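As practice, study what follows.
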Amino acid sequence: MLRRVYQASERCGRQAEQVRVVAVSKTKPVAVIRQLYDSGHRVFGENYVQELVEKAPQLPEDIEWHFIGNLQSNKVKPLLRVFQILLL
């Protein structure tokens, strides 16, 4: 997969080091995310607040989480709590 990222970045005139692959963890269990983490990946995206709230505390702290998608106003507080915990 990374070869395709490098090829696409070259076609766009960007250096491959400028491109970051975000693995979307949507609906994936913690065990699968952990396998990808153990292979060296550190950047993950989640688009369900409930899943991020549940998964993030079970995984290593050096994961860089991105919330992707739309965010309902009633989900903001739980999401902020998770990110505050992760930043401490």
